[in-house]
Amino acid sequence: MTKPVAREPQRRNARSNRARILATARRELGRNPDTTLEELARAAGVVRRTLFGHFPGRAALLEALAEEASEVLRGAMAEAAGPDEPADRALAHFTLLMWPVGDRYRMLLALARHDLGVERVAEILAPARAVVTAILERGRKDGVFPAHLPPAVLSAGLEAMVVALLEQVNTGALEDDGTRAAVAILIAAGVPERRARTVVESVGPAVLARPLPAE
């Protein structure tokens, strides 16, 4: 009687291959959104059949990246400041939490309209948008932020600003660990520059010391 073949090493190997392919895709698509699956397979050190066994096409690979980004985003959001934190500090805290997530998955910005679709990206970002809008609403009530724009509208504008800054990272025009972006976001929200810098300097070290949730 033959012994049953152990399947666990094969499953571990499959998980390792999948994770390596996704990590390679993040890196290579960030450099060149037109990178082919064949090129990704070579860069990941796997044969074409292995890549297609996990991801039968480009759409499947990008959807896996989108789902991974969504999970990491939710994990980072769990570390958001509580409702008792002053609104300007809470906004700085949240921006600093979100920046490394956006940095890791900024290639999705370049692929959003053509491959993923705006609706899918909006679905991924919806929880973060809700948090920022709530912080802005609270800050306006407390007099921390001016009431020059409705909170939801200002939230959309701040999101567009973060996207623009991440695109500048993509081009190599900007290097930032999130602190410069956080100061810019606070200023755009209506916080005086000196106060914005003080808040980010106060909040930044503890937030930046936290590791990004694993994908």
Descriptive tags:
10 helices, mainly alpha, 215 residues, elongated
| Largest sheet report | none
Computed over alpha carbons, the radius of gyration is 20 Å
Structural class: mainly alpha
Report helical residue fraction: over 70%
How much of the sequence is in beta strands?
A: under 5%
Q: What oligomeric assembly is this protein in?
A: single chain
Termini separation: 42 Å
The general outline is elongated
Order of helices and strands: HHHHHHHHHH
* Overall mean confidence score, pLDDT: 88
How many extended strands?
Answer: 0
Number of continuous helical runs: 10
Q: Unreliable segments (pLDDT under 50, ≥5 consecutive)?
A: none
Provide structural commentary.
The chain is mostly helical and 215 residues long. It is 74% helix and 0% strand. The chain contains ten helices and no strands. It has helices spanning 8-31, 37-44, 48-54, 58-77, 87-104, 107-116, 118-141, 151-171, 179-189, 193-208. Helix 9 runs antiparallel to helix 10. The longest helix is centred in the N-terminal third of the chain and has 24 residues, at 8-31. The radius of gyration is 20 Å and the shape is elongated. It starts with 7 loop residues before the first helix and ends in a 7-residue tail after the last helix.
